[in-house]
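Notebook entry, structure prediction.
Reason for the run: the old model in the group folder had no record of what sequence produced it. Starting over properly, with the input documented here first.
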Amino acid sequence: MPLLIGTSGWQYTHWRGLLYPPGLPQTRWLERYAECFDTVENNNAFYRLPTAEVFAKWRDRTPAGFVMAVKASRFLTHIKRLQEPEEPVERLLRAAAGLGDKLGPILLQLPPTLRAEPERLDRCLRCFPAGVRVAVEPRHASWWTSEVHDLLMERRAALCWADRLGRPLTPLWRTAGWGYVRFHEGAAHPRPSYGDQALRTWVRRLGETWDEDDDVYAYFNNDPGGAAVRDAGRFAGFARATGHRVSRTPQLSSAR
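New structure, fully documented this time:
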């Protein structure tokens, strides 16, 4: 199970002195991030979709083999609420194509108020070419049905496993030949850090679900206080200790 571990975003001023050395200009933060991690989840695209030229610049600023997952624009997921998805998806793919072979999965995070609409989701997923990996993060309990499970399986879209306070927010369905996990908030001190037991439990869950050659993307979204950076490194350590192949993460000593 190749486990690709990163954080949800990289432009956090409170990571100065933790991941980013004092005095390092913000214009060089992506390069520094990519020295420590092999993957990142780009959340900026959710709020304002960058141009293909901006994506291309990020491609050129990162080393070979780097992977950038992209959170789909809120225009598609929260304003249109998956309705008439053809043009928003085409625009998203046209822009993200600037990443070239560094484009990772596309994340569709659905609004918590959006009740299950399998027909809308199916129409949206049909807009993505077969070679593009799509992860779906529903946030309303009405989505947890066999119909939705089978739809994700048919479209080979991964159900995004989400965690808050050390507990899964979603069913632990395997709906694709690869996985996607988001860690939103841990319950340990200092908040929102994750405790050792929670991280070890997630390593076990992933190992029990995916095979040795299946890619699994894991992103820590608990950025306050640098918790995401520290937890990503600890999570990687627990995974390595159980024999899993893990992408590059910063050593805790160098990240402090």
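Summary: The chain has a mean pLDDT of 96.
The old model has been moved to the deprecated folder.
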